[in-house]
Design a protein that fits this description.
Yope Regulator, Chain: A; single chain; 5 helices; alpha+beta
């Protein structure tokens, strides 16, 4: 079930003190950003905030669990985001404090980017590609004239 407009508006109103808040619809839910930092998820009218080893115990103590994009498959739980307790969600100041912690965690979390190749690996690639292309027979471009096979002479035979 997608996020209802009423719930989205409610959460955005509760979080208006969080700096530069921006919702972004994604995969049937809504991602919450503060200054380009992804810190929360709205899914099925439930708010999940980013956690780490220091903040997760408060969520667990309140009986909350991790975000499960596919509820029938708990093995796909995203343990980096936990459900916000209802009493915190209803209390604007408490929610703002929890959200600020989540933004702080997002700011310090390592970003997942493509692995940068070492200079040694990157330098080996062009040489390897050049060696491979030298082994391949070059094919003429489409529509290009081909040289006649044989003696290579362009003079007519028989004179």
């Amino acid at each position: 079930m997608p996020v209802s407009r009423d719930f989205l508006d409610f959460v955005l109103e509760q979080l208006e003190t969080v700096g530069e808040l921006r919702p972004q619809r994604l995969f049937g839910g809504v991602g919450l950003y503060s200054r380009e930092l992804f810190f929360g998820i709205l899914h099925d009218d439930v708010l999940f905030l980013k956690v780490d080893e220091t903040t997760r115990p408060a969520y667990v103590a309140a009986g909350m669990g991790p975000f499960r994009p596919i509820p029938e498959q708990p093995e796909y739980a995203m343990h980096g985001y936990y459900e916000v307790p209802a009493d915190v969600l209803e209390d604007r100041d408490a929610l703002a404090a929890w959200a600020q912690l989540a933004v702080g965690i997002a700011a310090t979390a390592p970003t997942r980017r493509r692995a940068v190749k070492s200079k040694k690996t990157a330098a080996a690639k062009p040489r390897q590609a050049a060696a491979t292309s030298a082994k391949r027979k070059r094919r003429p471009a489409a529509g290009a004239r081909r040289r006649p096979r044989g003696g290579g002479s362009k003079r007519p035979r028989g004179r």
